[in-house]
Amino acid sequence: MDIAVNLKFVKEKIIKAALKTKRDPDKITLVAVSKGVGLLEVKEAYALGIRDFGENRVQDAEEKINCSSINVNWHFIGHLQTNKVKNVLPKFSLIHSLDRLRLAKKINQLAQGEGKRIKALVQVNIAEEETKHGLPPLEVKDFLEEVAQFPNLDIIGLMAMAPYVSNPEEVRPYFRRMYSIFRTLDVPGVDMRYLSMGMSNDFTVAVEEGANVLRIGSQLFQGDE
Ligand SMILES: *Cc1c(COP(=O)(O)O)cnc(C)c1O
Q: What distance in angstroms lies between residue 163's CA and the mean position of ligand 1's atoms?
């Protein structure tokens, strides 16, 4: 495992996919998903210039987040239980997985108590899979209209996970539909800035279809796809 080699490879693929579709590769944020790897790997990625890391469990992330020698943005990408919100708010700069009203209310309420504003992306279950969290595409607009009213919660985009397939071309239509939702929904108070989609096995397709935040774990830290 050599993170430097993996990162170089991933970056080259991002640049190639961006240029192919006439997009600016510098406007694409790579979130290194460090769930399952330790502080050592995180420090190594940090030394290579990575400043955004993703975790899906607060507990597993704690040691890494509390390390004072790295100053980065932590992204919460996992399913968020309402009773864990109080642990997530002080540590993470963006929540990718807002998927229900009760959670939005809880985040807003706790943020209000601390006099903070919390940034989140709304998770969409783009392929309407039973095994995945997220709102069905047709419910996204109503949900955004409702949560846009919450003063301490700022919605700044959408997140989705495509079905796992061996040939990433198969998920292109899902990414394309996500981009269309992202571009066409116009809800006052919602700033559609980020579209978080694309993981190790499908990120080049996601870039070609308009993603500007990629969440990549295994290809960076294990080197496989
Ligand atoms: C684990 C995870 C990723 C990264 O997946 P890889 O296939 O390892 O790149 C991205 N997004 C979410 C929500 C994850 O849980």
A: 12
